């Protein structure tokens, strides 16, 4: 394969970003730790803060879940053993809010703020003040929702005259504003590192699409929340919008906010597209096809809401034609995604397995299982209203949320985490214990729910026929097993941050360098023009200062850089190393030559 030299203009851009990043690090070094907690413009610190909040909400939301599972597993009569019925339903609401908007959303923002600046080579965050403020505003809003008291069982009724606490509506609106601010910063960060004429990395494309979809979806949710607050059900005595109507709340909320269920999967997809080739040691099977999945998933993901409105008086075109069709069709691009994933990885026996790959691989399998479970029922108007009121549905969304989304994002953290906090994982064994505990615990829970739902167990109840109690007992055991696995994860994370073996620090994370090298190699094989590929990153992860240039060869100019303590000037040329059968990229060798 012919050698290719890094484009002079591209390297100068990397050098320019490096100079800006050095200023960021200088300002960051002057801030006390307490100030950094509230405000940081360094992309890794911003990601770490989101991760720590995600872990915090994972424990808070998990505690509410264990209240539920223990109460349900110890009695079928509703007699308070762990919590009284009103607190049972309050815990149910808070569990969902904390897990989705607290743990999952925070992890998505952490992955976004870390992966985008690393993959585009800028290491810069656009509008860091907005990003930090958005984080704290979202946290404040979520805390207000948690403090709503027993009225918060309203989320699972959608029936008048039940109502939530005013703090629930106010907190929800505040949280949406905070999310918008973080999304704006993520989008700005993606464009900050974009060079005109060049495609952004495929992984970044998925994240950008995800942020746009969710930002648009939150518009109707915000309006809906404000309508509720200003109506008689708002509890403030400000009755601007007249008589409360549960259909308005349910309609506006689910019509546009259903994309929240794809907020984690779409960013996770971007991360998986980046990570899978690292284990396969070759590019994704088809870069072009993968990139076409982005607009397809955007259109279908933004319109899948029928299984929340199927029995409501919405216009036919919205309810039974467009949304119902979208619900049925969205399984196709996901099937194509996992086909690319498994083809790219190849023979599992030849892979180097660790907890990160295991979580990601399991997430793919669980998403397929969850899709098979949902597709025959949710797009079907004659079946869906009944199925939605049984434990079959909690089985489905725990597969999609806990085992697919959360499990997959945990896998991503296991892979990119070491270069994020600069230390190897303290214990690989604890990582495997976490994996098997989480998979076994949540797997038992979703299986119990699915069987009970098949036999007609009604969800959103605090008492049920004793026939179903064995399934609630299985779910309780599974929940506690997953809870202990989470404690193991947190313990391993703390030990890693304190005592983990330090890794060699480079300007750019080596995983990002390898991801871009593999993607460019794959795009070159598929006939992409060299000038439209994502920006190439230095193979050693180090960005040197451009000081001079020399000559040109084949239309590409060599770049002079400062190398070494003696100030010697060298140029760079890149040589992708391919195996003997031309089946996969073995690495990228950037060889400096003295000028």
From TrEMBL:
InterPro entries membership: Cyt_c_oxase-like_su1_dom, Cyt_c_oxase-like_su1_sf, Cyt_C_Oxase_1
Gene Ontology BP annotations: aerobic respiration; electron transport coupled proton transport; respiratory electron transport chain
GO molecular function: cytochrome-c oxidase activity; heme binding
Keywords: Membrane, Transmembrane, Transmembrane helix
Protein origin, superkingdom: Archaea
Keyword Oxidoreductase tagged: no
GO CC terms in record: membrane
Chain spans, region Disordered: 551-595
A Pfam family assignment: COX1
Cytochrome oxidase subunit I profile domain residues: 28-502
Spans traversing the lipid bilayer: 46-68, 99-118, 130-149, 169-192, 204-223, 260-280, 292-310, 322-343, 355-374, 394-416, 436-458, 470-494
Gene3D superfamilies from the UniProt entry: Cytochrome c oxidase-like, subunit I domain (1.20.210.10)
Name of this protein: Cytochrome-c oxidase
Organism: Sulfuracidifex metallicus DSM 6482 = JCM 9184
